[in-house]
Amino acid sequence: MKILFYNWAQLDSPVMAGGGVTLYLRNVIEELLTREGIEIYFLSSGHRYNFFNRKPRIEETSNVYDNPRLKTFTLLNSPVKAPAHDAFYAVDRWLRDDVTMRLVRDFIHEHGPFDAVHIHNLEGLGSNVLALPKNDKLRRIFYTFHNYMPVCPQIELLYDNRLPCADYHAGERCVGCLSHDRRMQDLIAFERVGGTLKGYGLAGHPIGGFLFDSYAGIRSFIRAARNLFNDIRHGLHTRFRHWHLRPKTSVGGKSSWRPGPHTRTPTPLPPRQRILDGLAYRQWREGNGRMLQQNVDGLFAVSDLCGATVKRFLPPGTEVETLLLPIDIEVSAAERQAFRAQRKETDGITLSFIGYNIPSKGLPFLIDALSGIDDPFYREHVDLLIVARLSPHRERQLAQLETRFRNVRVIASYARNQLVPLSQMIDLNIVPSIWWETFNQVTVELARLGVPSLVSDHVGAKQTLTRPEDFVFEAGNAEHFRAKLDRLVRNRVLRESFFEEELKMPSVAEHVDLLISHYSGKSTIS
């Protein structure tokens, strides 16, 4: 059996680019390599650009596995940049790009036949790869929803980083969803410079910093010159009537509500011109939906919540099967107890948040909700640990909780091999996500190491819990959250009831068995 996997980041990325998807693919591929007769190809795209040779092409890459049955490749100079937000204002190109489609099709023709191509996101590729023709070189295509990208280029179905998006108003709402206005071509230009400097070993080097800043400065100078040229051209049309010198000092004036002889009526203007029309976002969602329904042999969601959410935005009748994510931490109850026995005994309880400092993950909500606790018990017995890379603004917000808790501490980041000692610092983890989070691997990782989690009902991993009535709260509801939290903080027995039964999730081996069944055509759902 020969399988081609796609993810925008290479699976052995030293900085874990791609996050949880990268970790999942490592686990799956490592298990597949233990099976005889399976050959794996892995393709990434959208993250490597050359300054001098700008031709899009696919090249083989090295990887840490050193296994002859695993070959890795990357598509250089992709017209579609990853990650997703970098291409948000280029969804028209993202949907129809034929360069990446042609390169992937030729790659399959050269290296096939493949029993299956399994696509794990559309970042870095034109989404029309979903319409790859199936023939003697490609038998089946599969897609896994780790996020909502095919129906939402913001990927989280979270409008303006505030509200779960139930209606995108035929694409019109998408136009104002993101606060940034970065153009993909500008981001690719900077990535070309950064990637070239990295290739010469100058990333992080003072000379590399000088060259990168010089490039940015030259682009700013060119922009300033272009603006001046446009001003001169406008001046020629208006006889430079607006080019007179302004007064060196401002003259004082009076303010009156009564209009004077020279008072002008305010001029209503339309909103600023859109970067991209709403029709492009509608076509993105509808076009991808058609390709997923008509050409893809199996659509997988990583949780029931993920599947139910995405089906609301796909064509009626589209089948989506839940394949719960497995985790590589597979320990017995005795091992879990041994891990917990190694932790230092304290007279208090430590709460934690582990995740990204972004609104969708719920950290702003958590800070606001915890600031509503004014209880001597918390000030004397409860510590708070935030494991996230915080902005100065967020750290200032967090500081208000120092008067609410005995101790507030921050860990900016951790390596995966630090997960055990990190877990030994925590009594109860909090997952306050406000987006319809497709899974949440931290919940199950910590659970396997003996740490319970209190999760919002927008977290897909809630279906693995055996006591949701005690460990799930209503997303965005601070009062409900505090009530659930308080019971768990004050009751150790209730916290430990989290482990009365094992999590309801498959092992990596069981998950891979299901995948192989689909790849071979024995369990295809569409």
Automatic annotation (TrEMBL):
<keyword id="KW-0328">Glycosyltransferase</keyword>
<keyword id="KW-0808">Transferase</keyword>
<dbReference type="InterPro" id="IPR001296">
    <property type="entry name" value="Glyco_trans_1"/>
</dbReference>
<feature type="domain" description="Glycosyl transferase family 1">
    <location>
        <begin position="339"/>
        <end position="499"/>
    </location>
</feature>
<protein>
    <submittedName>
        <fullName>Glycosyltransferase</fullName>
    </submittedName>
</protein>
<feature type="region of interest" description="Disordered">
    <location>
        <begin position="251"/>
        <end position="271"/>
    </location>
</feature>
<dbReference type="GO" id="GO:0016757">
    <property type="term" value="F:glycosyltransferase activity"/>
</dbReference>
<dbReference type="Pfam" id="PF00534">
    <property type="entry name" value="Glycos_transf_1"/>
</dbReference>
